[in-house]
Amino acid sequence: MDVAHVNPFIDSFMNVMPQLGFTDVRKGGLGVKGQELNCSGVIILVGIVGTLKGNVVYLIDEENAKKIASTMMMGMPVEQLDDMARSALSELSNMLTATAATGFANLGVNIDISTPTLLSGENVSVKMSSKQVLSLQLLANDVPVEVLISFES
Amino acid sequence: MAVRVVIVDDSPFSIAVIRNILEENGFEVVGEAGSLEEVKEVIAAAQPDLVTMDMTLPGTDGLECTRAVHAINPNIKVIVISSMMDEEILKEAKENNVSGYIQKPVDAEELLGTIQRVIAYEEIFQTLEDAYFEVFKETLKDALNRMTKTLLTYKSEYEMKEDFESRGIVVIVGIIGKFSGRLMIDLSKETAHALVAAMMKKEPSSINEITAALAEFTNIVAGNACSILNRKNKAFGLRLAPPSVMHGDRMSISHASFKTMSAAADTHYGEVMLNVGFRRGEDKWM
After folding, report:
1. Is the pTM here over 0.95, yes or no?
2. Which residues of B touch A130 (CB under 8 A)?
3. Same domain as B149, residue B101
């Protein structure tokens, strides 16, 4: 796992989120996690193929997912994660990963991304393909989004 | 069969120029329209494959007319032909599902090239759309048969239009190529346990062993299916992201924003659901 691989994801978040109405975007902590992760809330998985091969998972807890969806929908109140809200979050993961892919391309690393798959649940065990997973914490208007990056070596 | 085109423009001169280029090159011009009302009428009556769309029209604009075309039939391709072209308008055109954009004065080669690209993209997607589901169903059946010597029976097939609750374990594989998509295999923990035991010819010692075997099984199904599809048409260029496995209680999986197909199969070990689909996406025209 190359820690430099998180940079395009940070840049992407910093670029994309302000366009969606988030005025305050920050980078939180970075850590390394094992292959098997326990997650609750909204889980969005995007596949990656190219010079690098792997998956990215975006994790947002349910209440925060509603806040993000609401901001993305011009402040429309989001009481529950309905179709519209879920679709907004899927689209967000697509935008973030596509922008990160452009960032990788600028580093000479060509990757393409799959369509996102969105799940939600409590105590969901997520097993990614690489032994080590980079966990990147990002905040938009103080709402934390955890990005799990798993590339096969 | 000739590609059938409707020309939307309010200038008889422009219509004559475009019609000329199209007819000289084997296209069939099946109608003309110069206002929103005419667009609705002509498109509904003629059901063309393709529309050329002017941007400035009396009382309306090309984007509103494009939406009207797609409200009648979302599969009709719209190519804008306009004297105006800037980044903002291109972006708006894309957002309104325009498939191509060329600037007036119309250059015959540019128009023909754009139409060919749009039609070819659509045809390639259609080939994939027509083929993929049977191929994935067949490879799942085949992989199960080769790895466990058992058969499966598909008991239902449907387009996935709603979220569903996972049976317990889901394996997801992202697919990437000219069109991107995903494959999911969903099954209960009990089914997974029995299936993996049969594949390994021994009791799995941990949930870890089960998820690892399922990941590999799904990878084989997806890999075999994509190889078959790539052989059908090299342009698909389908490749796989590594499988991810998720399990938990009350895991709800959202339906995709594009059409995906599901098949529920009865196996010797319990029910297994296959879901797969590809997004039509956008040809990279800008």
Report:
1. no
2. 242
3. no
